[in-house]
Design brief:
8-stranded mixed sheet; alpha/beta; two-stranded antiparallel ribbon; about 35% helix; Rossmann fold; 8 helices
Length: about 300
């Protein structure tokens, strides 16, 4: 199809497609960060592209102007790039990441399925992030679902049965289209604290990669990424400690999540989160303050 431009049609070993789309389905950028980590770590090479012009509103996702080696301006247009790499073990991975398209979702989905069919991909995994009522100080919560018993078993305790009904993201559209095309499919979601939108959330991103490795039956060397995540955690703790309103908010949230309910369960076990009677204060200013503090820390600015 015209929307898909091939650079190479490689012969791959039991390939799996891992997809992340930035925006609505990628809280904390944990999905796109995970795919980027895989691309960098395993030196993925480009094999196909989907030009972004037909799928993105360019006033929202603008092309970039840069200076070339000769000092002349060069325009770089947004695009979706498929890459492939050899993973540990006996299978290869095809990776796709980019902003969620604004337009022509059915056509975009058809282009992705063409890649799937051309390369003989038999498993599609979507990865993303959800903003939820979780604490940054707790172990990251990763959930997932799959359409085969084997994959559900590999997900282990992370496996959930989604009862969600409502507006859908393109990741959901791709997974359903893959299932209808006869693929095995799975989705993995990292749960990001709703009051902490600094991106990428490395702690949750590492947990997402750990779950992906279990699902695929491979081992990733996540040592350096865990070190980065430890620094991220330290920065978050410092940001909250220096802000009395943030400290108060997190303590109040912790009390609500861990406090008993009428059913005897903690709110941490209740997916509905804190009761409506105990609404937490708005977080807009809190989020902005935390993000500004973290930005200064990460760029080495003096407080």
């Amino acid at each position: 199809m015209d929307e898909l431009i091939w650079q190479e049609r490689p012969q791959l070993r039991r390939p799996v497609l891992v997809v992340a789309l930035g925006g609505w389905s990628d809280a904390g950028e944990v999905g796109t960060w995970s795919v980027d980590w895989l691309q960098r770590t395993y030196q993925a090479r480009p094999i196909a592209t989907i030009p972004g012009e037909d799928f993105l509103l360019l006033t929202h996702r603008r092309p970039l102007v840069q200076l070339g080696p000769d000092g002349q301006r060069v325009i770089t247009w947004p695009e979706y790039r498929f890459t492939c790499a050899a993973m540990p073990g006996d299978r290869d991975v095809v990776l796709l990441a980019g902003p969620e398209p604004h337009l022509r979702w059915k056509t975009f989905t058809a282009a992705v399925l063409e890649v799937v069919q051309t390369l003989g991909i038999d498993l599609m995994v979507s990865v993303g992030g959800l903003a939820g009522m979780v604490l940054h100080s707790d172990p990251p919560r990763v959930t997932g679902s799959a359409n085969t018993a084997e994959l559900v078993t590999r997900l282990g305790a992370a496996a959930t049965v989604s009862r969600y009904q409502g507006p859908a993201g393109l990741l959901s559209v791709l997974v359903v289209a893959g299932r209808d095309a006869g693929l095995a499919t799975a989705s993995i979601w990292g749960n990001v604290p709703h009051y902490l939108q600094a991106s990428p959330n490395l702690r949750v991103g590492v947990a997402l990669l750990e779950q992906l490795a279990r699902l695929l039956g491979v081992s990733f060397d996540l040592g350096p990424a865990r070190t980065q995540a430890d620094r991220f955690d330290a920065d978050v703790a410092a940001a909250i400690a220096q802000d009395p309103s943030a400290t108060r908010y997190v303590r109040q949230l912790e009390d609500q999540l861990r406090g008993p309910t009428s059913s005897g369960l903690s709110q941490h076990d209740n997916p509905a989160g804190p009761s409506e009677r105990e609404e937490l204060p708005p977080t807009e200013h809190l989020i902005a303050d935390l993000e500004e503090f973290l930005r200064r820390r990460q760029t080495g600015e003096q407080e």
